[in-house]
Amino acid sequence: MIKRTGNHCVYLLFERLSQAHGLRHGVFTRQGGHSSPPFDGLNVATTTGDDPASARRNQQVIASELGLPLISARIAHGCDSCVIERATPDEPLEELRARTRQTVADAMITTETGLGLFWGFGDCAPILLYDPHHRAIALAHGGWRGAAGAIGPRTVDAMRERFGSRPEELIAGVGPAIQSCCYQVSDAVYDAFQRDPRARDNASFIQRADENGASSLYLDVTESNARQLLAAGVRPDHLDIAPHCTGCAADLFYSHRKRPHADGRFGVVIGLAG
Predict the structure, then answer these.
(1) In-domain check, residue 49
(2) Backbone angles phi, psi at 124, to 5 degrees
(3) ω into 38 cis (within 30 of 0)
(4) Crossing angle, helix 221-231 and helix 151-163, to 10 degrees?
(5) pLDDT tens for each residue of 89-115
(6) Cα 84 from chain centre
(7) Theoretical Cys-Cys bridge with 142: which of 25, 87, 146, 189, CB 3.0 to 4.6 Å?
(8) Residue 261 has pLDDT above 80, yes or no
């Protein structure tokens, strides 16, 4: 990934997405920003204990850096998608933003220009998709529940149904998430992946024994989402996968699993320039 330093922020770009004309995106680290400890850095979440004013100020840092106003639906930790589009061609952005805030979904798709699809992440995988032929984009939230419900392939399906996108033409990136080195899970998580063959056949679980010989199950959220995209028809040479485990890279990213009681969320954005 490509590292960029901006005004009060440090962020990463996927190499393939960064080459797309008129597309803007960023996976923002926790470095920079205006939040105080223990949320120190560029925390974008207003609901995890940080001063909401600081989190909103950090969101504005991101919006200014990319030159796009941010827009978000309400995450449900599921696998539903929503279309972000103006009710009329001249609908003001603030009205669109207000409507979107009331929408519950874990994937946003759009062809609207001049706005950035935005969410905060803390161990779940950001999935970014771009259709250069139809000028359509998507941002999906691939936590373990989303991965168990095949959120990536479902988002690809939604883009095909709504915009005519073809999986083999999509440019994709799977961002930092918690990996099997840090993420021990229960049998219930494993069972959840068995309900959808796209999730079951592409899940990245490993068994690992502790020092006493007891075996435990671990999940790689990044790899599971990446495998699902490939199975959905995304070409390997169109897919970038972030190498970072959010559980390990505490200097770069927030991690809900590692610091469940006092941590933030790092921002991810994809948008089409106006």
Answers:
(1) yes
(2) -75, 155
(3) yes
(4) 40
(5) 999 999 999 999 999 999 999 999 999
(6) 16
(7) 146
(8) no
Closest among 157, 66, 33 to 43, alpha carbons compared: 33
Quote the distance between the C-alpha of residue 57 and its chain's center. Answer: 20
- Residue-number span of the structural domain to which 99 is assigned: 2-177+235-272
Alpha-carbon span 6 to 65, nearest angstrom:
7
Rounded percentage of the chain residues whose pLDDT exceeds 90: 91
Average pLDDT, the chain: 95
Q: How many domains does the chain have?
A: 1
CA atoms of 30 and 96, how far apart (whole Å): 28
Average pLDDT over residues 53-76: 97
Backbone angles phi, psi at 93, to 5 degrees: -60, -40
Assess if residue 67 is contained within a domain.
yes
For residue 166, the SS3 value is coil
Tokens at residue 244, please?
């970072």
The C-alpha atoms of residue 166 and residue 154 are separated, in whole angstroms, by 13
Q: Which pair of structure tokens corresponds to residue 9?
A: 């922020």
Q: 224 in a domain, yes or no?
A: no
Phi-psi region at 95: left, alpha or beta (left = phi > 0; alpha = psi -120 to 50): alpha
CA pair distance 38, 254, nearest whole angstrom: 11
What is d(CA 89, CA 188) in angstroms, rounded to the nearest whole number? 46
Residue 108: both structure tokens together = 């946003």
Q: SS3 of 8, please? A: coil
**Taking the chain, what is the end-to-end CA distance rounded to the nearest angstrom?**
25
- 158-200: pLDDT as tens digits: 999 999 999 999 999 999 999 999 999 999 999 999 999 999 9
Classify residue 40 as exposed, middle or buried by CB count within 10 Å of its CB (0-12, 13-18, 19+). middle
Prediction pTM value: 0.96
Distance CA 248, CA 265 (A): 15
Give the tokens for residue 269: 């954005």
